[in-house]
Design brief:
367 residues, mainly alpha
Length: 367
């Protein structure tokens, strides 16, 4: 039993580490000219296929959240854990305000800086924290349903969530682009509740220890990637790339993320070094996510001004060919290094404060 528990832990570490890398990779598309370039050659086709894989980063994090937290109950100790997210978020946001170059010439006032922390714009990648706070608070209540319903009723719940969340995101763009069926439309009000769907998916996998053969997972991922890229080319033949079907609530993205999760989380690493490395990255995923906003704000402007910007115009194909394998590792490793240093300093301060509090309480007890 102990061996199984360790192997599953290593698989989750691998999943979270992969998701952290995927975040950096998908931001390459965001910070270059991918979304302004039509898919007209093999290079752009490969970029699009890779982008569909990298787009699973956030869904993988959410599935891991459900997988690891479905047993949590309503308690004071649970809700206090939110500070493990809030404190690093606030500190890193302050670092963003200090280290990032302002967008305009007008300096940011103190009030604007404080407000940007509260509305999650100090670090533009912190929208995830904004979303996660609500999911964290809801999780014990969601778990009541998870641990009350039997397996059949949980499947009904998942099916209902897919109907109200995934189908509109997936099919409404298709209906809109095909004239003969453009009058069809799924109600889409619940589309933004995708974090709850991913949470339930992860919880269901954890509760019933779902396993799927790796060959099936590979086949599903390959089919979905080719299908999504093909549809992207078809629907945008006369237009540039857009966000059609790219929403996290899309049925395609959900199915692909599920297959990737099932592929990675059931895997194991024989190398002790790799196990430790993935564990280290897994513990720093939030920090990597947030710090990558700082690293990206320096790396991409530098490359844009020196290598592929207006002074040195390059096509997206050449940007990807020459710089993807340079920029992505540079951004990932620099974010990882900043996260590691921050984690060590934060841990030392936390231990120091706890020791000080213990000494104060002990002194009061003696008096």
């Amino acid at each position: 039993m102990e061996e199984k528990r360790t192997r599953r832990s290593a698989g989750i570490d691998m999943t979270k580490a992969s998701a952290a890398l995927f975040v950096i990779c998908v931001h390459f598309s965001l910070n270059t000219n991918y979304y302004n370039t039509p898919i007209t050659d093999a290079n752009m086709f490969v970029q699009s296929c890779l982008r569909w894989i990298f787009l699973s980063a956030v869904p993988l994090f959410l599935i891991c959240t459900g997988y690891l937290n479905y047993k949590n109950t309503i308690s004071r100790s649970y809700y206090l854990k939110i500070f493990r997210v809030l404190i690093p978020y606030v500190l890193i946001s302050i670092l963003c305000l200090i280290l990032k170059k302002p967008a305009g010439d007008t300096p940011v006032s103190f009030q604007q800086a404080v407000f940007s922390i509260f509305n999650f714009t100090a670090d533009s990648y912190s929208w995830y924290v904004n979303m996660y706070i609500g999911l964290f608070l809801l999780a014990p209540l969601l778990n009541v349903a998870l641990n009350t319903l039997d397996r059949k009723k949980l499947r009904v719940l998942l099916g209902t969530l897919i109907f109200v969340i995934a189908l509109p995101a997936n099919f409404n763009p298709l209906f809109n682009n095909i004239h003969k069926i453009s009058y069809l439309y799924f109600p889409d009000w619940w589309q933004g509740f995708y974090p709850i769907l991913y949470y339930f998916i992860g919880a269901y996998i954890s509760k019933y220890q779902i396993k799927i053969r790796k060959s099936i997972c590979f086949a599903v991922i390959a089919i979905l990637i080719l299908l999504q890229t093909g549809l992207q080319m078809l629907l945008n033949r006369y237009r540039f790339n857009n966000w059609a079907m790219s929403d996290y609530s899309s049925l395609f993205v959900i199915a692909e993320s599920l297959a990737l999760f099932l592929l990675i989380y059931s895997s194991d690493l024989k190398s002790r070094f790799l196990r430790r490395a993935t564990k280290c990255i897994s513990t720093l995923t939030l920090e990597i996510f947030l710090f990558s906003n700082i690293t990206d704000s320096y790396i991409y402007p530098y490359f844009n001004s020196h290598f592929f910007g207006p002074a040195n115009p390059l096509t997206q194909e050449k940007i990807f060919k020459y710089y993807f394998l340079l920029i992505v590792p540079l951004s990932f490793l620099s974010s990882l290094l900043m996260s590691f240093i921050f984690h060590k300093l934060y841990g030392s301060c936390e231990k120091g404060l706890k020791a000080l509090a213990y000494m104060i309480s002990k002194r009061r007890a003696t008096h």
